[in-house]
Amino acid sequence: MRKDRIVRGGGAPRRVVEVVQDRHGNPIEIFDPPFYRNEFEDAYRFIIDDYVVAPKEIALFLPCAVRKPYSQSPSHKLFRRVIDGVLAPEDYHIVIFGTCGTVPAELECMYPYRNYHYMLGKTTDERIRRDFHRIEVYRLKGYLEKTRDTYRHRLAYCIGPFRKAMVEAAEATGIAVDLLPSDPMIERLYDIDCPFPEGSLSMQGYVDEFREGLEKLAGEIRAGDTTALEGCPERRGPVRA
């Protein structure tokens, strides 16, 4: 039986629970859940209590990625190309959320956000998944409250457990967060036979809808319209995760 390996340095020791390969065949060590660790809570408290978030028209919430820093992951490179093809940099602020907590993208290289690898989707332990939901809802609620008057629009591009946490946090705070992809698109691409039935946010149908949603949002900003995106009502009920 393979024994878990302990990695020391850069904070408290971390347990390597699995080694996976990226699409180029490079090994990536997967650690134990980061959301339990004190350094992630300490970093979150710094963001909530001390960090100044500059006002922007739009907050774009994107899920965290295994590759670090997040902006260099294949998925985030794709997302940013889509975003930059529609919105001006001065109009939006990217916020990363998920197993890392809730992190302004410009802090992606701050410890501990560049120093962990974890994949919630591979976790079958329901206790861990419940704990993630509870902790992430708490962290999203804190960030939404902190930035209540910082943004005029909020859009989260997410599926699965991250989407479920965002829905609950938005409902608890009463702060409108538009969601993409839409529920009908998720239903259309859902494949029960796949390990991850909702697929990947890099799938073309999701990406096309993300681009269309950004284009509509950009038009509303130019027109001074604060109406929620069509197909993305301001208050969402629970979604399948």
Based on the model shown, name its key terms.
tRNA processing, alpha/beta, DUF5591 domain-containing protein, 6 helices, Uracil-DNA_glycosylase-like_sf, DUF5591, 241 residues, three-stranded antiparallel β-sheet, five-stranded mixed β-sheet, Rossmann fold, disordered C terminus, disordered N terminus
What would your notes on this structure say?
This protein is an alpha/beta fold. The protein has one domain (35-223): 3-Layer(aba) Sandwich (Rossmann fold), CATH 3.40.50. It is built from six helices and eight strands; from the N terminus they run E-E-E-H-E-H-E-E-H-E-H-E-H-H. The strands form two sheets. A five-stranded mixed β-sheet has the order 6-5-4-7-8, with helices on both faces. A three-stranded antiparallel β-sheet has the order 1-2-3, with no helix packed on it. Mean pLDDT is 84; it is low at 1-13, 16-22 and 230-241. InterPro entries: DUF5591 (IPR040777), Uracil-DNA_glycosylase-like_sf (IPR036895).
Overall strand count: 8
**Architecture in CATH?**
3-Layer(aba) Sandwich
> Helical region count?
6
Main β-sheet, in a few words?
Answer: 5 strands, mixed
Helix content: 25-40%
What is the C-level CATH assignment?
A: Alpha Beta
Beta-strand portion reads 15-25%
Question: How far is the first residue's CA from the last residue's CA?
Answer: 32 Å
Order of helices and strands: EEEHEHEEHEHEHH
The coarse overall form would be: globular
Rg calc: 18 Å
The SS-based structural class is alpha/beta
Low-confidence stretches: 1-13, 16-22, 230-241
